[in-house]
Amino acid sequence: MTSGRPAGLVERARALAEGSVSSRALVEEALAKVAATQGTLNAFRLVRAEAALAEADAADAELAAGGHRPLLGVPVAVKDDMDVAGEPTAFGCRGAFPPVPEDGEAVRRLRAAGAVIVGKTNTCELGQWPFTEGPAFGDTRNPWHTGHTPGGSSGGSAAAVAAGLVPAALGSDGAGSVRIPASWTHLVGIKPQRGRISTWPRPESFHGITVNGTLARTVEDAALLLDAASGSHAHDLHRPPALRTTDAVGRDPGRLRIALSLKPPFTAVPARLRPDVRARVVALAERLTALGHEVEEADPAYGQIGLAFVPRATAGLAERVRDVPDPALLDRRTREAARLGRLLGGAPLRAARRAEARLHRRIGALFTTYDVVLAPTTAAPAPRIGALHGLSGFGTDRAMIAACPYAWPWNVLGWPGVNVPAGFVDDTLPVGAQLLGPAHSEPLLVSLAAQLEADQRWFERWPGRATDRETGGGATEFGPHTGPQATGP
Question: Which residue ranges does the record assign to the Amidase domain (predicted)?
Fold first, then answer.
């Protein structure tokens, strides 16, 4: 391990199993880092300090008694759209949200694997936007450059992992909300097959376009968290067959046929890939060629796939708005989108859902020629904090589509995608690329991502210090990356 590098999920789990560190020490370290950075990064909506320490002590007792579970005693975080027993689930909104009585299925499975949930991370209001800002909690900032957003809507989870506050975190992805913040914070982000990680107590989320996923610094860490959280609830609408992604880490993917797709899907407003982002993605394509894969430019036949996205997204938002204690406190853009969702929630929604099978056939035809699609995750690096503040709903949509036109079609399809770091633009701003596959292709994507990681070694660069040029704050320290198992030879 590079000296000073934050220890990952696999490393921490191994150290706990070997007895070289205690869960209490790791949880205390995580809590101290969260406290030290909350005023700067603002990654967490809620911190479970007392409960997490009690759970750490219980984990230490279990370890001392010879207990073995995959994540026993490891601190992790979850996004604040997931239920944690005894805590509110505000999902980025203002208002008095009551504590929920029990864990959601994904959190329950993390606990069953032994993980300690240190807190719930910030997300924009009802997960709509690729930034994590709002009156309910303030601005969540990018550890690489605190004048910029970490992305959204899983921005708090991304900021927490990128800054080394926790080794991995759960997020959710309805239009790229795991992959976009992973791209903008130099992380691996896995959007799995629909239903791979349960969304219960909702049988599906946003009419099936939103799935839960993982963020981590390495492919192995992201895969381990995915395996720990995966599994269905008896009442889930989508229950894919079980598989293990960690088994694919280090496995030779073989010689693959890879479609490099740089053209964004059709949108109603302009979207253009920035040349410097294009260059980073093309450089990854060249490395894949050097690793023995066959890479050529080809685009999925997306067609008018947006017609199958908008009704599901807005109708799902309208349903979430109905659950908010005080809708009057919501952003006007949220209320406008919910009104549209109520209009589209009948016949247009049913047509959008019926279209999915046709889209699977048409877009899936690409996979008779290619094994994987390589595409940009975003068209641009992370925007500045506040860049979208005060815009109209249409203005926000234009800005979102301009920056993030690439991720959302795979949410309509329900298929897996993995963001991998692609380098930096403007000196300090990370960007990423997506590896996209057909149904149930997580092991193939993880195998390829791990091969690329071994070549690129992106985990050797982390934001121990970052410069906030916008605020003139100079070098901003995000807490010491020290403590048990945090450094190595």
Answer: 26-445
